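Postdoc handover notes: sequence design on the structure in folder B. Input tokens:
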């Protein structure tokens, strides 16, 4: 008796002993021949069940700004403790007002805060399937300040006379080049001996 497989990339079979070696998921036909007669059987190869899901990084930080995203990855481990790509996890955010996540694991922030992002996948364990999942804690933080512009500027040589007031304004620029208004500006005079009063909150 000799054996053969219709697709060795799915399953190989020993020519003389008929021992099957599963290679990848799919359907394959195994044929046995002897004395001019033959028979065949259709064999289904399934991936090993998923044992665990690991999100990396587990505690990512993403800045809140236009076009800023953070990509998370989910490592799926099968029952042989080998990373597999045979299945695709499902992603979801537990608070989409803080951040949303695509099915590719891309996190897009919406407002400051902390949110849990979950990746889960069907174990594929027949006949009774279940779910395994992991959770990442995502912190959405402000973009750093890179520049502060005071108006009037030094070049404009602002002058104020005794008894009068002069209003200063400050433009805060973040690392994306945007002017942001959600940062606190504290005002003070560098000359402590000057008889000048500055409101630390309003300028």
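Designed sequence:
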């Amino acid at each position: 008796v000799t054996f053969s497989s219709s697709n060795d990339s799915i399953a190989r079979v020993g020519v003389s002993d008929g021992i099957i070696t599963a290679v990848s998921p799919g359907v394959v036909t195994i044929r046995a021949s002897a004395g001019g007669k033959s028979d065949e059987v259709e064999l289904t190869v399934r991936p090993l069940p998923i044992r665990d899901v690991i999100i990396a990084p587990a505690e990512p930080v993403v800045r809140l700004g236009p076009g800023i995203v953070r990509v998370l990855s989910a490592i799926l481990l099968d029952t042989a403790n080998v990373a597999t790509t045979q299945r695709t996890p499902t992603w979801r955010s537990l608070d989409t007002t803080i951040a949303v996540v695509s099915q590719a694991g891309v996190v897009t922030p919406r407002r400051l805060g902390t949110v849990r992002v979950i990746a889960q996948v069907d174990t594929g364990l027949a006949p009774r399937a279940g779910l395994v999942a992991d959770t990442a804690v995502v912190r959405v933080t402000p973009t750093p300040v890179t520049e502060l512009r005071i108006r009037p500027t030094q070049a404009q040589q602002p002058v104020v006379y005794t008894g009068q007031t002069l209003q200063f304004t400050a433009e805060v620029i973040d690392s994306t080049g945007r002017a942001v208004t959600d940062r606190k500006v504290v005002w003070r005079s560098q000359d402590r001996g000057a008889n000048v009063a500055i409101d630390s909150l309003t300028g």
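Context for whoever picks this up: The mean pLDDT is 89. Don't rerun without checking with the PI first.
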